[in-house]
Amino acid sequence: MTVHAPEFRSHHSSPPSHPRLTVVRDHATPQVAVSAHAGLDAKLATATREVVVVSSMSATAADPIALFRRIDHENLRRGVRYRVLFPDRARVTPFVAARLSALALSGAEVRTTGAVPMDALVIDGKFAVLPSEGQDGRQGGIAMFRLPSVVAATVGLFERVWSAAVPLVADEVPGGTGLTERERELLTLLSAGCTDESAAARLDISVRTVRRMVSGIMSRLGARSRFQAGVKAADRGWLVEGTG
């Protein structure tokens, strides 16, 4: 169920036919929950540049924000940038750690920090999705804002925390030995002479994701060029692992 809030009229000059705030409830019935998730999925499907996901892993956080969705992986495949921020304890929370690793494997940038001060999701820097609570004080709904002031405040807080957060590196992926399976496949293709474009096609990911993965590998290796990265990867036995 979607509830439009024509309030804010006294503070903002937007016309009533274009409400700036949409609240999606997610706790009344299973049917309502499906509606909330579907509404958020539909909005995420419109992303063209970047999706920011921030979770405090709070028990009272709105579930739709912290969920891991199929649409996220579909967005990553078509080149939408994802930045995902969770508390450090996510690294040792089995279900969450596995999901974050899956996102990182798909090309998302994942970081953690000691404490995350909010739960939020931002789409293309235009829409901010925040937790919402009903009149009974129960949380589980979400509020979608496109008020520039709300979006800017949300992004500003995220950027401050993100800049000091620690990346989730491949070595921390369960079962990893320094590279994710996708990174090993990519290195194998590139070392065999594939271009970024052909490697992207073979892996069913975007060229932008390929280049982001290469940049991450180079950073992890301390390499300033792809050639240097190739030498260092070979020294570590990564290319042997990929071809074996």
Sum this structure up briefly:
This protein has helices at residues 30-44, 63-66, 70-77, 94-105, 148-164, 181-191, 196-203, 207-221, 226-235, 238-243, and strands at residues 2-4, 21-24, 50-54, 81-87, 109-113, 120-123, 127-133, 139-145, 166-167. It has 244 residues and is α+β, with helices and mostly antiparallel strands. α6 crosses α7, α7 packs across α8 (207-221) and α8 (207-221) packs across α9.
Distance between the termini: 53 Å
Number of strands: 9
The CATH homologous superfamily of the largest domain is called Endonuclease Chain A
Strand content: 15-25%
Strands in their spatial order, largest beta sheet: 1-2-8-7-6-3-4-5-9
Structural class: alpha+beta
* Uncertain stretches of 5 or more adjacent residues: 1-21, 173-177, 240-244
Average pLDDT level: 76
Give me the number of helical elements. 10
Oligomer: single chain
**What is the CATH class designation of the largest domain?**
Alpha Beta
SSE succession: EEHEHHEHEEEEHEHHHHH
CATH architecture of the largest domain: 2-Layer Sandwich
Query: Biggest β-sheet, characterized?
Result: 9 strands, mixed
Judging from the principal axes of the Cα atoms, what is the shape?
globular
Task: Classify the helix fraction into a percent range.
Answer: 40-55%
CATH fold call of the largest domain: Endonuclease, Chain A
Rg, please? 20 Å
